[in-house]
Design a protein that fits this description.
The chain is built from 6 helices and no strands. By secondary structure, the protein is an all-alpha fold. The chain has 2 domains: 1-56, no CATH class; 60-131, no CATH class. Helix 4 runs parallel beside helix 6. The longest helix is centred in the C-terminal third of the chain and has 19 residues, at 108-126. The protein is globular and about 50 Å long.
């Protein structure tokens, strides 16, 4: 339940401000738990806040759940084409972002899933128009 809630709340701040989405995601999560926190223990709520706060900072990850979430978040972005350039000219920028994200993977399952999904990303990348 905790990991699912993290997934649900971690990027909610994007709807307010993409550049500062973590700050706003935390605010939205805090409002959510004030109104709906009765199904969570205080330690679960703190864990959720903690992962939201550091989910873009692999150097700060300390626990297996934090690592698993980061890798799942990147895999979700790959499989939904978040890193797919809009044009050939955007390719280098998006590829650079993707490489930076891939470097965060450390678990064997994460690497396995990455290998599985990166193939379709590359196929889609090759289908981009050249102009």
């Amino acid at each position: 339940m905790t990991l699912r809630t993290i997934a649900w709340l971690h990027d909610t701040g994007n709807s307010h401000d993409q550049k500062n989405h973590i700050k706003y995601s935390l605010l939205i999560a805090k409002v959510y738990f004030i109104k709906n926190g009765f199904n969570y223990t205080p330690s679960q709520i703190e864990q959720i806040y903690g992962v939201i706060e550091i989910h873009n900072s692999p150097d700060l990850l300390k626990t297996p759940i934090e690592r698993a979430f980061l890798e799942a978040d990147v895999l979700g972005a790959i499989t939904t084409n978040k890193y797919m350039p809009r044009s050939f000219q955007d390719g280098a920028s998006y590829t650079g972002k993707l490489v930076h994200e891939i470097e965060k993977f450390e678990t064997e399952e994460g690497k396995k899933q990455l290998r599985k999904h990166i193939r379709s990303y590359i196929v889609n990348l090759h289908e981009l128009p050249l102009m």
